[in-house]
Structures are given as C-alpha cells and as structure tokens.
Design a protein that fits this description.
The chain is of the alpha+beta class. The protein is built from three helices and nine strands; from the N terminus they run H-H-E-E-E-E-E-E-E-E-E-H. It has one domain (about 30-160). Strands 1, 2, 3, 6, 7, 8 and 9 form a seven-stranded antiparallel beta sheet that branches. The relative contact order is 0.18.
Length: about 160
C-alpha cells in the first residue's frame, strides 16, 4: 500500500512538470499583448508581498503587433537574485540585454506581464532575422521562419480569430 502511494505521488509530480504544447492560435487567444522588441535592461525586485523575487526586463517595442502601443513594455519572470538571496523557478525564461524577440504576453494575477506557456510565448529573433523557438519540440512549424513571415502568420491568425 505504502509503495503504491509513493508511485502514485511520483506519477502526479511527473505529470505536473509536463508543460502542454500551446498552438499559435492558443498563444494569440491567451495574450493581452504581442510585441516585437529589444531587451534594454533587466533588474530584480521583490513582489509586493515581499515573498518572491521577480526579474523584470524593459522591452523597447519595435512593432506593437497587438495590444501594446509604441514605447516600452516590461516582461517579468519569477526568480532572480536580490539581497543575497537567489530564487529559481521551473519554466522561467531568461532574457539578455540587446536580445530581440517576439513576445506573447499575459498579465499575471499580481499584475506583471509574462510570456505565455513556460517559454512558449517567446520567439528569439536571430542575427539572420529568423525566429527561434525557446523550447525543444514546441512551435517547430514556426522555428526558422523569417521574422517577416512569422509576423505575417501571427497577424493572419489574429484576423482569423476575430
């Protein structure tokens, strides 16, 4: 009995760690904003309750594909280092200053904008102006498209969703 309970808990924990694949249409439906932008700076701060550290990334908007205006947005991910304390969270994305990406963002319950689907909502733009998925096996049909073709697919899908 005890061994089967342990096996059951291991199975539940394993299933909880699996992130379901999100289609382009689901990314669009779940996004409050879709932007093509460049990371200008990053910083870590405690959330309002001073329980968790979040790392925030100031994104200069190059193209407000949907739901954002020109200027800047802040994309946030749980985790970071602050006050001698480090926190890491599974599924949290990393951003680099100078990096260019197309982001599918949703508003978290505490008000931060975050990429959808444990990284599936971030498509890095390469030096060759092609998009690269950030999770293996996710969005493979979009991986390697030119930035222009990628944004055309996104805008076409947005029009179909209306």
């Amino acid at each position: 009995m005890k061994q089967s309970l342990v096996s059951l808990l291991v199975c539940i924990a394993t299933q909880a760690a699996i992130v379901p694949s999100v289609s382009l249409e689901e990314l669009i439906d779940q996004s409050q904003a879709i932007v093509h932008g460049r990371v200008m700076r990053s910083w870590s701060a405690w959330d309002g309750a001073h329980r968790y550290i979040w790392t925030h990334h100031l994104i200069a908007v190059i193209d407000p594909v949907r739901g954002a205006g020109p200027g800047f947005v802040v994309a946030s991910e749980p985790g970071g280092e602050l006050d001698g304390i480090g926190m890491r969270f599974s599924g949290a994305l990393e951003y680099s200053v100078g990096e260019e990406a197309v982001l599918f963002l949703y508003r978290t319950p505490i008000g931060y904008m975050r990429a959808i689907g444990s990284g599936q909502g971030k498509y890095t733009v390469t030096a060759e102006t092609r998009v690269r998925v950030n999770l293996k096996g996710r969005g493979a049909d979009l991986n390697g498209l030119t930035l222009a073709d990628f944004k055309t697919r996104v805008r076409d899908a947005i029009r179909r969703r209306k």
